[in-house]
Amino acid sequence: MRLEDYPKDPRFAATVLKSELITDDGADAEVRELVLEVNRDEFNFEIGQSIGVLVEGPTEFGSALRQRLYTVADTPSAGGTKPQITLVVRRCDYIDDYSGEQYPGVNSNFICDRKPGDELFITGPFGLPFTVPEDKKANLMLIGLGTGIAPFRAFLKHIYQDVGDWEGKVRLLYGAKSGLELLYMNDKRDDFSLYYDEDTFEAIQALSPRPNWADPIAWDYAIEERGGDILSILDDEHTYVYVAGLVPIRDSLDKLFGNLLGSPDAWAKRKAELKEAGRWVELLY
Ligand SMILES: Cc1cc2nc3c(=O)[nH]c(=O)nc-3n(C[C@H](O)[C@H](O)[C@H](O)COP(=O)(O)OP(=O)(O)OC[C@H]3O[C@@H](n4cnc5c(N)ncnc54)[C@H](O)[C@@H]3O)c2cc1C
Q1: Are residues 14 and 39 in the same domain?
Q2: E strands along 154-279, which residues?
Q3: How far separated are the first and last CA of the chain, in Å rounded?
Q4: Which CATH number belongs to the domain containing residue 72 in this structure?
Q5: Is the domain of 118 the same as that of 161?
Q6: Residue 89 C-alpha to ligand 1 middle, in angstroms?
Q7: Domain shared by 153 and 104, yes or no
Q8: Which residues of 196-215 are buried (b: 16+ CB within 10 A; e: fewer)?
């Protein structure tokens, strides 16, 4: 669905409860974790879904409400007070097509500048959830790039803390430009360390070989020693693959898995089968 086709109504006021910088101090990127409280009793959403944030900003024809989507980064808060939503937002710039100049992205900067107590307007939720398979023996391959880690933090929390006794293999493949830009997996904060003791869990990091260049993330290098494990998981009919992050991850993964399976055609066939069976779900932007 195109961004302009997402409805801007109904919209709900939400108050910022918290905004925390979650990138390391030396990182080029600024990524913040925000907790919003929706000012109504009900706002139901599931892991894998996104909400819209509405911001007044300039357009070709003056000014208008712009909507951008953000993936929920924590499980819905259980009972009690008003619904809370955690978001992980990267402060973005955009390059103007005509002038070639760089400008601050309207919505992400607005959100990153909000302070606790500030109000903003949200819409949604939108998109298909990443469903937890009924079978606890199912393998899960969770692949995230940059802010694409957001839904997987929520997903793993749900699997290991709410569902419990997960028996299938769980592999988190996480790509970032540099170690400093790894979210929730850096010196400041390592939320995934909660699961390192789980026998079924393994996290694999993939970084760019030259962080300041536009080189793609070195996925093949990261999984070099684990190719056999990943291939056997992909071969298993009890495997679900969930992918989240920026669109270029699609090509990188096609290349990586094409190499692993021995040919691009073999991978295209396998991916089509996985998609057909609902065992390959993408949340790309
Ligand atoms: C389904 C969906 C889920 C999304 N979830 C998240 C999320 O959880 N966290 C998040 O920060 N963004 C997320 N985005 C992106 C977000 O909606 C906005 O595109 C982004 O915040 C930029 O908006 P802007 O108005 O600031 O700038 P714009 O002028 O709209 O875009 C500025 C530039 O930033 C690039 N960009 C957009 N998002 C990112 C990103 N996350 N990392 C690096 N570059 C980016 C764009 O390609 C564009 O070139 C999601 C998008 C979609 C469609």
Answers
A1: yes
A2: 170-176, 201-207, 239-245
A3: 11
A4: 2.40.30.10
A5: no
A6: 8
A7: no
A8: eeeebbebbebbbeeeeeee
**Contact status, residue 135 vs residue 96, Cβ threshold 8 Å:** no
Same-domain status, 81 and 183:
no
> Is 156 near ligand 1, meaning CB less than 6 Å away?
no
Total number of domains constituting the chain = 2
| C-alpha dihedral (53, 59, 64, 70), degrees to nearest 10 | -10
**Ligand 1 geometric centre to CA of 240 (Å):** 26
pLDDT tens-place string over residues 226-253:
999 999 999 999 999 999 999 989 999 9
CA distance 60 to 24: 36
Phi-psi region of 79 (alpha: psi -120 to 50; beta: other; left: phi over 0): left
Residue nearest to atom 10 of ligand 1 (CA): 89
Looking at the structure, tell me whether residues 119 and 143 fall in a common domain.
no
User: Which pTM value belongs to this model?
Assistant: 0.93
Q: Is 70 in the pocket of ligand 1 (CB under 6 A)?
A: yes
**How far is Cα of residue 35 from the mean position of the Cα atoms in its chain?**
16
* CATH code of 151's domain: 3.40.50.80
In a domain, 131, yes or no: no
Give 30-64 pLDDT, tens digit per residue.
Answer: 999 999 999 999 999 999 999 999 999 887 778 88
- Other C-beta atoms within 10 Å of 103: how many? 12
Ligand 1 binding pocket includes 108 (Cβ within 6 Å) = yes
- Which of 126, 150, 180 is the last residue before a domain boundary? 126
Residue 146 pLDDT exceeds 70: yes
What is the total residue count of the chain?
285
Q: Which domain holds residue 279?
A: 139-284
